[in-house]
Amino acid sequence: MLDKISSIELTYQSNIWLLIIGILTIPIIVGIILIILFFTTKRHVVSIIPDGGKPIVFETRGMKRDYLEDFINKVEDASMKLKYGKG
């Protein structure tokens, strides 16, 4: 329910260990491969965190940032209206 949302955010998720191991790896080829894997496995996601529940996380592949920011603003506005009755 919208009135149960405590926060919503637009972030990137990635495996930082791939980058760290890639930088610290002695064989250059393996290091380069791990660094490339780090950047290719990076995912753009939206996380909706409810009060005391499991977050809803979904990938936003192929969506424009303006559309996502508009979506987040609309969800936040609707949530605030339900919680506080303000427009």
**Total domains, how many?**
1
Overall spatial form: elongated
Number of helices: 3
> What is the radius of gyration?
18 Å
Largest sheet: 3 strands, antiparallel
Compressed to H and E, one letter per element, the order equals EHHEEH
Mean pLDDT: 78
By oligomeric state, this entry counts as single chain
Give the N-terminus to C-terminus distance in angstroms. 18 Å
Q: Give the spatial strand order of the biggest sheet.
A: 1-2-3
Number of strands: 3
Given as residue ranges, the uncertain stretches (5+ residues, pLDDT < 50) are none
What fraction of residues sit in β-strands? 15-25%
- The secondary structure category is alpha+beta
Fraction of residues in helices? 40-55%
